[in-house]
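Hey, can you fold this one?
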Amino acid sequence: MTATVLIVDDEHNLRRMLRSLLEVESYDVLEADGALTALEECQRSEPDVILTDLVLGTGADGIDLLEQLRARQIESVVVMMSGKATLDDAVRATKLGAFQFLEKPLTPETVLTTVSAALELTRARTENRALRSELTSTHEIVGSSAAMEEVRKLVAGVATTPARVLITGESGTGKELVAREIHRQSPRADLPMVSLNCAAVPRDLLESELFGHERGAFTGAVARRRGKFELADKSTLFLDEVGDMHLDAQAKLLRTLETSTIERLGGESEKAVDVRVIAATNMDLEAEAGKGIFRADLFYRLNVFPIRVPPLRDRLEDLPALVEHFAALSGAKCARAPRQFGADALKNMRAHRWPGNVRELANLIERLTIIGTSDPVSADEVDSVLPDVGMGVVDRPRDRHKLGLAAALETYEAELIRDALTNADGNVAEAARRLRTDRANLHRRMRRLGLSRSDTDVS
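Sure. Predicted structure:
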């Protein structure tokens, strides 16, 4: 969808120059010669970005326009322009929510870079509104077990503070959900939480993702780019799978946490940032630090307030509520009535080990919603979609000695691979990273064991 930019300036030639510049970049451009005309234009079609001069001839100025926009709850990102601005003007505009203050004379590169950054903020705000809407229904923390009540208590206690939080737990337990709840209850909740999965970013791009880069910083860096820390300024940055971060990036992250500054790759100056960091991992970072794989000093910086999210097998009393929750969500998603689960079906589900935790349960409920035609869901129907016998039931490993050494080892190897694929949502490269092997080796092992991506609990 094409972004819309409104130019507000009483100088016709400047508006014409900015229009030409922005239209070349495929933006839709609107114009207004004063604050009143701008407000009328915003009422008709709320633009994504507003470039407004501080001084608008006679009548209302850019500050007045900004006040009126906020009073009318128009959420366009506003960039102020002026060649005569004072420090007081800049401070006042910033307090009213101005995104940037550009000094005249303007340069094309500065205008385009600023508009691009403003649009990133617009997109983030839109995503945040959608996320908040979802959080009230699809992403609520479900369960009243003692373990989950303890998690809620810890979240409520730390949310209103600036403390860094390290969330630990197995894959699929809902660590990101806990991070979002901390952000939602924090004073930073008005801005979107920014997330980065450290395991999903190639090693040579991770530092750029975190800290941004200048144009020409490396091959392919054709334009300046803001990193996650800049995007999360005054908000929260969630670093998922932080244990997969390589040592060079760990060192730079540590320095940022110590100084509250970042430097873009290829840059020559530092920029102050105010970011609350919440990290998550399924690893034992203290043990990894002892092996030299993870920096001990970074671990202590991140582990100010630890929260452990329990695996599903340790809070099976929450299973009925979770099943009902996911049945409702899957029914709405698939345009079908939520399926009901009988006592025998729940009994068989309680016997499963749930290596993929709540994520695996959600996938299983969705699969049952798709294939099922009658209620209640039977025990046999549950068994038909659970992993093979010996792969996921709590008491099966006790019988492995009956298989013989070779068969037992293959069974265990297949179980590990299934678990990794499930936790990686079927992504073979990600599963290989989790198993500390390479993708080619994992493919060879899967072929030998007769496994494929379709054998996982990914729907």
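The longest strand covers residues 77-82. Let me know if you want another pass with a different chain boundary.
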